[in-house]
Amino acid sequence: MTAADIDQAVRATVHATWRVVQPRLIATLSRMLRDVPLAEELTQDALVAALEAWPATGIPDNPGAWLMTSARRRALDHLRRGRLLSVKHDMLAREMLQEQEIVPDFDAALDDDIGDELLRLIFTACHPILSREARAALALRMICGLTTSEIARAYLVPEATISQRIVRAKRTLSNSGLAYETPSGEALSERLASVLEVVYLIFNEGYLAARGEEWLRPQLCDEALRMGRVLAGLAPDEPEVHGLVALMDLNASRAGARTDTNGDPVLLMDQDRTLWDWLQIRRGLRSLARAGELGGADGFYALQAAIAACHARAETAAATNWRHIAQLYAELAQLVRSPVIELNRAVAVGMAEGPQAGLDVLDAVACAPALATYHHLPAVRGDLLQKLGRLAEARQAFEAAAHLATNGRERGLMQRRAAALDARKI
């Protein structure tokens, strides 16, 4: 193996480890430093240190523990420079001396209630002192480790806009001296909507990764589900919390059928439903029913969960109640004006009333600026055109979707669909 190959392998290991442990590192350092932006900065320093050290020293037996120790050492150095209370200083110094003598197991270095720690981090990032847009962007950058371009893609806004939001949010948090904590009572309620939005987007990134060569990021789905259940315990009478948990459970229940043995995507209508997790479906349906009992059946997350429930209740793809799904999307569109919701409604209308009806819905929003680089727009168009027999146009649409897709698996799917039409000698 050449030096270049070794360096590439080390970098791949560093980034794979980083993707998993970053939120836990930030949570741990935030608790130590009481400063979320500073915690993120020091964890980034630990990442740089790994990229510099590991090619020469080799990958450690426990990469996560190495990063944790490196990040905590930097936090301790900062506390020393800041001349904090000697008692706290001595306590942290003893911890670091012990860690230097025996490298701990990474999981043992974390609090048992890691779900609570991550939520404290999200609640801090979602403080009302920040704008609603900045809260979510900051939390996604720190918790998910998403790049600014990936967050921009999730919100369908320019990358520069997201970058500015994050910079301003970090500056505001640093200057405010806000506590790193989980609020309660009225303080919790006023942040809850933003926290739910962040958890929802974390789940979405796990359910369909924006970038990379893997279609799924299961660890993010698991984190989001755990945090959703913790939130249900913190706010048991909030219907939208139960709606979000229902939505995540119902969507996650299909994980085992969403990819084939090669890791390539399997579309919903082609999935083997015997591979769906029926225990998780039942949990999701119970949470959806609870949201309804609390008067929240028409909430943003509950409506999406109701759509997922329609799929879950259909024993076969052909048995899916597409008319009801189209109606639910119409209700969702009344609640939140979004071209993405209209795009999804076009799919449902196309299934319920025919592809031309779906194409009519799609054409009404096709010029929306937010969809200009959204690969799902030409992907849906290609599917509807294929059903109409307009195969040359469908192939062009799938090729356009492949060009716009930033996830390697989705790009490959669109390329295969285009090639399949080409093979039919259009």
Automatic annotation (TrEMBL):
Organism superkingdom: Bacteria
Pfam families: DUF6596, Sigma70_r2, Sigma70_r4_2
Occurrences of domain RNA polymerase sigma factor 70 region 4 type (ranges): 122-173
Domain RNA polymerase sigma-70 region as annotated: residue spans: 21-83
GO molecular function, one term: sigma factor activity
GO biological process, one term: DNA-templated transcription initiation
Gene3D superfamilies linked to this entry: 1.10.1740.10, Winged helix-like DNA-binding domain superfamily/Winged helix DNA-binding domain (1.10.10.10)
InterPro entries associated with the record: DUF6596, RNA_pol_sigma-70_dom, RNA_pol_sigma70_r2, RNA_pol_sigma70_r4_t2, RNA_pol_sigma_r2, RNA_pol_sigma_r3/r4-like, WH-like_DNA-bd_sf
Domain DUF6596 per the UniProt entry, residue ranges: 191-291
Protein name: RNA polymerase sigma factor
